Amino acid sequence: MKKADVVVLGGLSGITAGISCRRHYPDKKIILIRKEGTVLIPCGIPYIYGTVGGPENNVIPDGLLESNGIELIRGEAIEVDREKKTVVMKGGEIIGYEKLVFATGSVPLVPPIPGIDKENVYPVKKEFEYLSEVHSHMNMVKDLVIIGGGFIGMEFADECRKGRNINVTVVEAMPHCLQAAMDNEYCEEAQAKLEETGVGILVNQTVEAILGKKKVTGVKLSSGKELKADMIILGIGALPNTDLAKKAGLELGFRNTIKVDRYMQTYTDPDIFACGDCAEKQSFFDGRPTGVMLASIATSEARIAGANLFSPTHQNCGAISVFSTVINGRAFGVAGLTERCANQMRAKIVIGTAEAPDTHPGGMPNSCHTKVKLIFAKDTGVIMGGSICGGKPVGEMTNVLSACIMHRMTADDIVKFQMGTHPALTSSPIMYPIVNAACKAVIPLKASA
Amino acid sequence: MKKADVVVLGGLSGITAGISCRRHYPDKKIILIRKEGTVLIPCGIPYIYGTVGGPENNVIPDGLLESNGIELIRGEAIEVDREKKTVVMKGGEIIGYEKLVFATGSVPLVPPIPGIDKENVYPVKKEFEYLSEVHSHMNMVKDLVIIGGGFIGMEFADECRKGRNINVTVVEAMPHCLQAAMDNEYCEEAQAKLEETGVGILVNQTVEAILGKKKVTGVKLSSGKELKADMIILGIGALPNTDLAKKAGLELGFRNTIKVDRYMQTYTDPDIFACGDCAEKQSFFDGRPTGVMLASIATSEARIAGANLFSPTHQNCGAISVFSTVINGRAFGVAGLTERCANQMRAKIVIGTAEAPDTHPGGMPNSCHTKVKLIFAKDTGVIMGGSICGGKPVGEMTNVLSACIMHRMTADDIVKFQMGTHPALTSSPIMYPIVNAACKAVIPLKASA
Known about the structure:
By secondary structure, chain A is an alpha/beta fold.
């Protein structure tokens, strides 16, 4: 029987957990088991269909495993025997472990819409061959309907028209696309940017049926209207991939994720850890379970899990939820709570907003108008979240906010923030919008104190 | 006699101090006095000579004063009478104040080199008409020598060849350009980038004499070599503009800056505050006086001073020193201490480095290879500084580091940092170099604990 000190089950966060384990435990034997021949960069998947040109250009190189001395076993783990501390492979092979990490990720949610199993209806699986098939197929498509206006749906819609003459329509059940992630004014701007490219957006509508005989020919909407479609992309969310964990008797929690503590150690078995989309997450803010699934959270958890395997020391502070996207060249980012979320919690908040070009003077080339909205707790002045839109720096500005949130900075702290500025790289020191948004919140905060 | 609750003397940080005062004290009458007709964006000055096209495109609009109800008086303040609490103007006008803010900035350092007063030798003054004159003159120049390879010198050298056929040589006294600000490997990369544009760089050399009769014709170097020059730009540093403060009897400190406490209140007079280049700065790290002058520090101090005028409440935590620059399209940023500074302090440190493309996959358009170097205190693991080079996001990545430093995050904290990632905007969640540099420092830190 093959045996390792550490066996990791899974893809992206599995690689990160393995590398973290290697850093902390240089002498341990580590095996990574995964079904997929190739691991795709998950956030890059929509870009396969436009900018990046194909799934082969969106791959995480396995050289990372080799250079960290992690053995890769390709195959499907079908059982975990916690008594014997073994993993049973589909081919019958048995692999022993001392510590086991579940990093089995998520699978796309496929809703029970009549006709969902017709040909050319594609949930977004993170599988290389499958996405290759979608890629070749897309070149023959005339009318594409995307069900779900979240990140995946919006990014697919933006990308798949690049170099192709396709009619694309996004169908979203909520009043706005991206509504689960952003406040209305940002959703509206993102929608308008996407519509500029010629993509159609239908909100407040669901798909009641998928039409066609063998192959999809259209969809019937809740409004009664029918749309032509020879391809459908499903982007309405994901479910944790936890069948194997359940079978192994691990306690599942919120939405069937594996229950873990702050050390990423499973509730059930101190020798088994979990991280990434398959693991339960608590919100950084209220500590309640949250369904957010982001590659950045997954890798952060993986670093914690890998470090804790032989001595639980490093604590997970909970999911802040930090992300960014680009729609038709305009970037959007959110860190922490939106105004909508804060209101849903019944939090008393003060909002500060500011706008500025992301260069100074604004006449520098490629200058991009940037908007920032920050949300502070009324009683304490502590930042609860922020939203930004603008150009390429939005990604890292969102990360500035994440650092501010992680360390619970107050509006007063952010007013004093010492940002570096440069004409070609940032807003001016007078206009820097993260600081100015905090400045605008300080007075209402003081008045309410 | 004209009278105001608050009189501010100065330019950029004066505007920011005025706006901050207005936010905190909506009913106060505020007057800003300055000599200059127009205030230039200080960091934009080198870009006047290339990308931006002229000083008229690099101006801070006075609309900011109007919209904040700040009265602007153009003229030179020649005396402050602290007994009578008045400012005396050159034309004889007297203006009374309750609180006074010195934001008088700095003036270029002009070294006593023989021949320094010849025609066409230009220290970089922050004056509109003067810089316009330099601009028109530069179009007729064939051989430009820049004395000083700091930011100003390097940025001028990079910019002034844009659209002009000039021979440009930078003469630097130290072994590397930018040496006061960056570690050697970053200095070397910046120099190589500048040399690619055709600019000549001479290090370890000083200018012993400026040659020519009335007008400059060349320089004599410490090596004995002579260089042809029909224009010289001086970029070797700045001195605080504190003659008026000295005359008013305010205590001066390090390098003739006005002595202020953590509230930006002068040591001498509780009704007088100072901020920006004219005010003494203490290092965030060791609390010692530091000569660093940055627009971002100046505006941060101005926000603190403006808020404290009628009730000293907001403390300055000291200068972290955060900046970024761009040389021939490559961006460089530093927040906090360099390795060189840490070694000079005899600090025991652990360094972590990482590299990654700033998109994921790296094949996304305009992807730029990014390098990060982080410095941690060996005993505590607290971050002391970081250096980055790469593309446009470097500006805001440097600000991520500033937030980490301001809140004294440890390497363990940064390992757990929840960064948002997006294919077009950031490195991948597996490769994000700020986090990975911290990961690499964690083990040596643990070993030394």
